[in-house]
Amino acid sequence: MARSTVDPAQVRAAVLALGDWLRDESQPKPGRPDLASAVRGTARTLAAAAPGASVEVRVPPFVAVQCIEGPRHTRGTPPNVVETDPRTWLLLATGLLDFDTAVASGALAVSGIRAGELARWLPLVPL
Predict the structure, then answer these.
(1) In what side-by-side order are the strands of the sheet with 63-67?
(2) Do residues 52 and 67 lie in contact, with contact meaning Cβ atoms separated by under 8 Å?
(3) pLDDT on residue 1
(4) What's the predicted TM-score (pTM) here?
(5) Per-residue pLDDT tens digits for 4-63
(6) What is residue 30's DSSP assignment?
(7) Rounded mean pLDDT of 99-125?
(8) Are 94 and 15 in contact (CB under 8 A)?
(9) Residues 6 or more apart from 23 whose CB is under 8 A from it?
(10) CA dist., res. 110 & res. 84, Å (int)
(11) CA–CA dist 113, 88 (Å, integer)
């Protein structure tokens, strides 16, 4: 998948392939390429749906995207950051985990007054 384009069918297929593992962590962990495809696809879907550069979403080691309209950040650490691990991101992207619950549990780190705006764009690919 090209960096600048998002094919909704490819993203949905990538996420569906991980559905059993997302619903039940005791299932075998997906391979790195499959996990990367789902994470990158959903993050880029977010960036396309909520264009802008006021919030940076980081899902290391796979992707970081800027999204949501507002003041643009160009140097150093952005003031509005959302960061999490790949599984938590996919749980959020599929609606299997609520934004506030993820923040309260510490699985989702948010900083800046605009970071919470991400919640209104979720889920991206409901399971």
Answers:
(1) 63-67, 55-59, 81-84, 108-111
(2) yes
(3) 44
(4) 0.92
(5) 578 999 999 999 999 999 999 999 999 999 999 999 999 999 999 999 989 999 999 999
(6) P
(7) 96
(8) yes
(9) 96, 127
(10) 9
(11) 21
